[in-house]
Amino acid sequence: MNESVLNALTHLFAIVANVNADGVSTKARTIFENYLRAYLNAQLVKDYLELFDNYIDFYHRNDPENLIQSDEKRLASNSVKLLRICKQINEGLNRREKVVVLLRLIEFVNEDDHIDAREEAFISTVSDAFNINNKEFESLKIFATRDCSDEIVCDHLLTINSNEVSTESEGSWFEINRPRNYSTGKHLFVENLNGEIKVLFMHETQSFLLKYTGTDALQLQGRRVVPNRIYFFDTGSILKGPRIKTIYYSDVAIQFLKTETKSKFVFQGKNLSYKFRIGQGGIADFSFSETSGQLIGIMGGSGVGKSTLLNLLNGNLKPKTGQILINGVDIRKNKRQIEGLIGHVPQDDLLIYC
Predict the structure, then answer these.
(1) Maximum CA pair distance of the chain?
(2) Cα 188 from Cα 239, distance rounded (Å)
């Protein structure tokens, strides 16, 4: 967590702690300290606690009657301060960092498993000030505070567990009349996983949030995953456990990239081979078949034929034997039928003179 995010959180946490009718409680400071200890070393925890105390002192010093104000006046006073602080930090945070700040603020006010009206008004004000989409704000709040299976739009939620989902049809009438949001979301089967992992997709920032409920000793990027704590599952992230197959970022991302239509593309190579005009090298006889929605890597050393294979697959080269098919259509014999379906970015630098 970078310095700009931590400073913003410290400032906002101090404002939220100032909302309580009992003033700044020891509990609020303890909650903040525990939060810091989950992410920082001892020296940084000490530094940010001191900064937190300074912010608290600043707000009370200029508002000595804060503790005896009515709830309405206290809320109005702190809302003005909150808007001013949000305006100051808004320009220093990127879109993703704003989501981080809002998420941690929601966790902070929900530490006692309850968000009262004043705290709700505060996090809503921060969300509005950061220009967070209302639907994504509600999804984020639900994800952070309670079981979210039935309340978040199914396309944005992934459940990972060891339950195998039945693929049997429920009947044509049910399929036709199924309500649009009737679903518990996307599902990924992971054998031997104790409990379950929920992943929330934040569309505006194209980011994934992960929460685990269970007893397995999972590790995210080499760090222990604490149950019910929310983590960002960033590009390249790896989630490991002693009894489960490793979960890669691509395993999660592909669940949200899959097409929702029933029609699929089938890309096939049948008995492909290729020989260079000079020498004995080329592509040995092989076949393959893959459907749309898959991410496939071609690996090998320099000169083993990766570029040659790609040029076979995109139709630039004619195979010595075999066919390349898209939904049964030969890409070399029926070029007009498959026009626009294949894209190829070559590794060569191309210079265009005008």
Answers:
(1) 91
(2) 14
Of 211, 233, 257, the residue at which a domain comes to its end is: 257
Give the CA distances from residue 17 to residues 12, 27, 60, 195, in Å, rounded to whole numbers and listed in that order.
Answer: 9, 9, 11, 34
Strands (DSSP E) contained in the chain are 157-161, 186-189, 196-202, 207-213, 219-220, 223-224, 230-232, 238-240, 247-248, 266-275, 282-291, 321-326, 329-330
The verdict on residue 197 lying in a domain is yes
Residues paired with 212 in a beta bridge:
197
* pTM score: 0.64
Query: What is the chain's Cα-based Rg?
Result: 27
| Domain count within the chain | 3
Kindly state whether residue 327 falls inside one of the protein's structural domains: yes
Query: Residue 100 and residue 93: Cα distance in Å, rounded?
Result: 10
CATH code of 200's domain: 2.60.200
Q: Which amino acid is at 346?
A: P
Could you say which of 228, 257, 286 is where a domain stops? 257
Q: Does one domain contain both 123 and 16?
A: yes
228 and 334, same domain (yes or no):
no
pLDDT by residue (tens digit) across 99-134?
888 888 888 888 778 888 878 888 898 899 888 989
Same domain, 271 and 251: no
With contact defined as beta carbons under 8 Å apart, do 158 and 258 qualify? no
Residue (of 332, 213, 214) closest to 274 by Cα position: 332
* pLDDT tens figures, 134-162: 989 999 999 988 765 566 767 889 999 99
For residue 104, the enclosing domain spans 3-132
How many whole angstroms from its chain centre is CA 117? 29
